[in-house]
Amino acid sequence: MEERDLSNIDLSVAAWKKSSRSGDSGGNCVEVASNLPGAVAVRDSKDPTGPVLVFAPGEWSAFLGSVKAGRFA
């Protein structure tokens, strides 16, 4: 997989969506922005001005595949 610099992604245009697995009880909640060109961003929904993790789409897909396969249980 080709490595690319994702540090300059413009997060001001991110359309954040809360995970369907996140409840409304204020617990562990994540939001994902997949509308960014060549990147997927993830943040804590309780801290929208806090740190953001940015992944290449292939990396994000590989992570989701591993989660769905139960590799992190």
Structure, explained:
The chain is α+β, with helices and mostly antiparallel strands. Helices cover 16% and strands 21% of the residues. The protein has one helix spanning 57-68; strands at residues 17-18, 30-33, 40-44, 52-55. A four-stranded antiparallel sheet has the order 1-2-3-4. The longest helix has 12 residues, at 57-68. The chain is flat and about 35 Å long. It starts with 16 loop residues before the first strand and ends in a 5-residue tail after the last helix.
Strand order of the largest sheet: 1-2-3-4
Identify low-pLDDT runs.
Answer: none
For the secondary structure, the number of strands is: 4
Sheet having the most strands: 4 strands, antiparallel
> What average pLDDT do the residues reach?
89
Estimate what percentage of residues fall within beta strands: 15-25%
What's the gyration radius in Å? Answer: 13 Å
Helical content class: 10-25%
Q: How far apart lie the N and C ends? A: 26 Å
| Pattern of helices and strands | EEEEH
Shape field: flat
Number of helices: 1
How does the helix and strand content classify structurally? Answer: alpha+beta
Which features characterize this protein?
alpha+beta; 4-stranded antiparallel beta sheet; 73 residues; 1 helix
